[in-house]
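Retro notes (design track)

What went well: tokenization of the new backbones is finally stable.
What didn't: we kept losing track of which sequence belonged to which structure.
Fix going forward: every design gets posted as structure first, then sequence, in one message. First example under the new rule, 422 residues:
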């Protein structure tokens, strides 16, 4: 394949990327001569993270691939080109400026592709970098596409990518049936420890892809699934060890550090009672409130001796958001040992400390109903909120947080596509 100027520059200045440890699914597909899509009319679900190791867009790679006809593009939350904000609906049909291929939004009035949009497709390809956390909506889009692929008898091809958190970390409860939503579409842990290819296989084989029939009853579907596996990735490997370059997976995940910390503060952020760095320069990397004593908060957080974590006092004035222009005090979260840190606990321990510092801190009773509804949907369980709100002590929900996770870890092992180490 002819390389762009950018890819040649990357090849010259970073030879490790040419021979690097990890080849993602699109790299493997290029290397094998597009074996899995050759001779097929395909659709592509992607966004800016769909790139090969030289940062060539998967859109361009497949559009120019020999004996491959790319006839449709499908965009998740934030859009194919990544220019929409979190939660912003992307409506209508457009054409890709570079290739002229029609683009269909999967984050507008409907989040399911239509039968008409699948017309003429032999296969639908999925290439998006996920961050390994259930509430991040790309995996919900993936599942929806798998459902339609099953109903339309179109092959689903996953171009696999690393789970940035590695493949060993599993944390959090599943999702109660009453709380199924686009931020919690499957009964899997909050941090699920699988690549998107592994997760797709589990969803397919465990009967988690459900559609409503004409009688209003749910039925299970199963698609024809192909996973183009990575080469060189092992379960103990976080993204910074892959030799790959990070492309922002959404506007507030500009770095690998933000991806690591999303599960640490994302649930707390739903309550709107503290800044988690959104609107400042540390998205998901801090916990701060107006008028809070940063030094005391940091001292109390460090006194918990949470493994692999250090909390530094920080004062910050957000540039946008609900706390725009207001001085806040809090902590910046530093991960000193990723393997021992339990990320999703951090926000609950922070609420525990905040409640001890301020007897009026009671967001799980005082927050707006819409905020509490989102908190429940993201955690996946009303019991978490109800039990934690009694005393604001993480020990009261520890079993709820980890019992399901450990059972899921056992279940998911049979769907592992990659070893734990070399």
């Amino acid at each position: 394949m002819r390389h762009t100027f950018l890819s040649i520059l990357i090849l010259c200045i970073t030879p490790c990327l040419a021979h690097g440890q990890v080849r993602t699914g699109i790299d493997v597909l290029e290397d094998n001569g597009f074996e899995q899509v050759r001779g097929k009319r395909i659709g592509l679900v992607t966004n800016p993270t769909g790139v090969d190791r030289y940062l060539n867009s998967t859109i361009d790679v497949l559009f120019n691939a020999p004996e491959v006809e790319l006839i449709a593009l499908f965009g998740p939350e934030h859009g194919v080109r990544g220019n929409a904000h979190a939660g912003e609906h992307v409506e209508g049909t457009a054409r890709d400026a570079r290739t002229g291929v029609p683009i269909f939004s999967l984050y507008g009035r409907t989040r399911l592709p239509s039968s008409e949009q699948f017309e003429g497709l032999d296969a639908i390809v999925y290439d998006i970098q996920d961050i390994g956390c259930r509430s991040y909506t790309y995996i919900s889009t993936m599942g929806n596409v798998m459902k339609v692929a099953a109903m339309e008898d179109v092959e689903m091809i996953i171009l696999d990518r690393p789970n940035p958190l590695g493949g060993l970390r599993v944390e959090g409860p599943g999702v109660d049936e009453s709380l199924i939503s686009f931020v919690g579409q499957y009964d899997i842990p909050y941090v699920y420890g699988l690549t998107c290819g592994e997760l797709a296989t589990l969803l397919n084989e465990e009967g988690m892809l459900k559609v409503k029939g004409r009688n209003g009853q749910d039925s299970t579907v199963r698609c024809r699934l192909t996973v183009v596996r990575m080469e060189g990735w092992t379960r103990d490997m976080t993204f910074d060890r892959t030799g790959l370059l990070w492309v922002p997976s959404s506007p507030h995940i500009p770095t690998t550090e933000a991806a690591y910390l999303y599960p640490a503060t994302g649930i707390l952020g739903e309550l709107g009672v503290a800044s988690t760095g959104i609107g400042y320069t540390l998205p998901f990397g801090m916990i701060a409130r107006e008028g809070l004593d940063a030094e005391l908060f940091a001292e109390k957080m460090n006194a918990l001796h949470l493994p692999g974590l250090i909390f530094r006092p920080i004062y910050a004035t957000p540039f946008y958001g609900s706390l725009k222009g207001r001085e806040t005090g809090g902590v910046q979260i530093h991960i000193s040992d990723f393997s021992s840190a339990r990320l999703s606990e951090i926000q609950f321990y922070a609420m525990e400390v905040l409640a001890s510092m301020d007897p009026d801190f009671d967001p799980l009773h005082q927050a707006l109903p819409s905020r509490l509804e989102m908190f429940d949907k993201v955690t996946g369980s009303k019991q978490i909120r109800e039990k934690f709100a009694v005393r604001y002590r993480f020990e009261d929900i520890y079993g709820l947080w980890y019992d399901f996770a450990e059972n899921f870890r056992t279940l998911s092992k049979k769907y592992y596509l990659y070893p734990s180490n070399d």
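Added context from the reviewer: Confidence is low (pLDDT under 50) at residues 11-19.
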